[in-house]
Structures are given as structure tokens and as C-alpha cells.
Amino acid sequence: MRILFVAYRGNMRCGGQGIYLWYLARELARLGHEVTVLAGPPYPDPMPFAKTVQHLPNQQFWAGWFSRDRAALLPTGAPLRVFEPLHFYELASSRLGFLPEPCAFSLRAFRTVADWLRRGRRFDVAHDVQCLGWGTLGLHRLGLPVVTTIHHPLSVDRRASFVRDESFRDAIGTMTFYPIGMQSFVARRLERVLTSSRASATEIERDFGVRAEQLRMVANGVDTDLYTPDPSVARDPNEILCVGRASDPNKGLHTLVEALAQLPAPIHLTLVDDDHPDNEARKRARALGCADRLSLVGRIPNEELVSLYRRAALVVVPSRYEGFGLPAAEAMACATPVVATRAGALPEVIGTGGGGVLVDRENPEALAKGIARLLEQPEARARLGERGRRGVTETYAWPKVASATAEVYSEAVAERRGGPASTNTSANPGSRPATASST
Predict the structure, then answer these.
(1) What percent of the chain shows pLDDT beyond 90?
(2) What mean pLDDT is predicted for residues 344-364?
């Protein structure tokens, strides 16, 4: 098939959607499909496997509002271009506290694709990566079957933002920032909505009003060739590792730091997060007297992250909510056992991979006990590691995920052409997270 990806943020270091885009596009190309990518900043890493990678720039005015950096709300370079419709929309919306990025990107993508179609280019299916802007409906109107991926609905982020808000003004900002109305309206009108867990499917049905028959659960993938165990790397029996942003309440870093304060002194935490003095985890650790046992390593390349997974005695995922839980799957792929909370999709991922234990969420005492108990049992950690590696390879390897995704594309194409959409697929609604091997 000729597959068009549209992704408003393309870089792997900007979040899970960038990782998803790069690896899924690569595996689909390896399966023989023709891949074209339209992406916004920060742009993807080089994608030599794609036929075309087109960058769609924006001024990122929204980031200035979000970080309260008013200087960043001023246009840079060719200042008169700010009066072009989409630039002006982004500037005005940002100053009013809205997130204009998905809408503006989708309209730029629609304009680009319409021009390509006029020039004779053709696509069999479009895959929207959690943008769901008004322009996505434009692609649909151009005759393209459109599939979208929603790792979790923005309503989840909005609820987490309310937890972080400290004033009524902050709460009003949260209400206006997230384009939930637009995204839910668009999602309900597309052929298929992909998501990676039953927990996310439930949220999408409830908060976005998407029908169950539109949903297909196709698991997120893990690069099981990169994330591998290495017996030659000695594990530090006192090191626990966490990958997450302290600025995101959903990641539950405050719970982990409180648990760290309850653990004995030899145990130390390595946190993959921005390394700056005002990091919320660092500030909390100072207040609890355990800052000397917390190390922040910043955002690091994948190869360095693999080394950290291999070295750690265990990985902790203390989230309040996860639509999937990629660090848990990556850790298990490296044969590193996981202590995770019973939150969102984590019970599904840990249950499928089989390489970890679960504790109650937002409970520092339970988390500390779970960590301590596993650290005291090296043989149990080794067994969990072996089981986790095997489970992730069987279920979450990218080639299997890409094959299952291609099945959903075929469904969407058949339905758009008016033929019967196949229901004999590994990605049916209500099924376990699908892979090609589960058919």
C-alpha cells in the first residue's frame, strides 16, 4: 500500500508519538509498503526508508505560553509573515491560552496533500498520529481512508493538569488549552481509531464518544533488536531506574521520590528526565533529605538508555495513568524486572510481558515495599527478567505490530470503497493488544 503518515510532532525525543511514527514507518517499509511522512517540529530523525519526508514548520508560539516565556510569543524572522492566516491564528490562539498546534498542522498537511493529489500523487490510506485537527477531516473529504492513533485522549492530560494547577486562573488555563472538542469530533468521523490497551480504549469511548466498532487495539511496539539484555554488563544491586517527566503529574514521580526516602541508604535512583535545579523530583528529594541518592541524567540517546536498563537492578514505573507504558516494555525487553503501579494500561503490559510486579498507585509505602522486596530477591529478579524478555519479544516486537497495523489499513480501505470490512483480524475491538502472531 501507499501509506501517508501525518504527525504534528515527529522527533523521538518529543514523546511516544515520535517513537511510534519512526519505528512503525520503518517496519511498514520493510514489509514492502511505500511510506510518505508529513511531520511538524521537532522533526523526525532521518528516515531513509521513506519515499518522502516533508517538514511542515510552525513558529511554536504555543510553547512560549506553556513555559510562560513571553518573549517566545514574538515572531522570529520575516516578521510580516505573522499576518499569514495560519501564523496569525497560532500567535493569537497562543496568546489566548489555546493549543493551536494540532489544528494548524492538520490544515498545513491538508493543503500539502491536496496539492500533491492535483499533481498526480496517490495514496491508499492516511495515518494520523494523534493530531486529529480539522484538516484531518479535509484528508477524509479528499477521498482518503483515514486511520488515527490515540495513545490516550487529551482528556487524560487535562485531568492531570488540574492536579498540577495552583489557582483558579491556572484551572481556567487548563480548560482552554486542550483542543478536546476538536479531537473528539474528528475521531468519531474516521474509519478506524488505533489504540494500544483496553484502558485507553475505555477512555476514548467514554471521553471522545468513539464507537467500539471503530476501535482497534494494536499494541505499541518495542525495538527488540536494540533493547536487549547483555550478560556481560554487571547489574548494580542497589540501583533503581525510572524514565519519566517530573513535570507530568501522570508519571507519579512524587510518589517514587517519597518511596525513595523510605528505602535504606544504599539504594539510589537514576531518573531519565531534564537535569535542571528546579526539577520537581530534585526539589522534592531535597525536602525529604534523599537528594544525594537521586541522579538525573537528562534526555539521552537510545543507546545510553539501553545501557541504563541493562545496569539497573530494576525499573520503576510509578505512574498515575499510562495509555501503554513504553518504559516498562523497554525494560522487560532488556530482561530488567519492573515494579509498576496498577494504573491505566500497566497491568495489561506487565501481565502480557510477565516481567514485573504491581503495587497500588499513589502509595509511597506500597511502592517502597515492592521495590525493597524485589531488591532482596536476586533469583526472583533473574526469573522475571527472562520471562519479561520472552513475553515482550513474542508480543511487542515491531514487525508483529506493523503487520497488525497493516491489517487495519486493509479494513479501512475496504470500508471506504464500499466493500465488506474484514472482521477476521488480530485487531478487533475488545481483543487483547493485537500482534500478527495472535491471528
Answers:
(1) 71
(2) 95
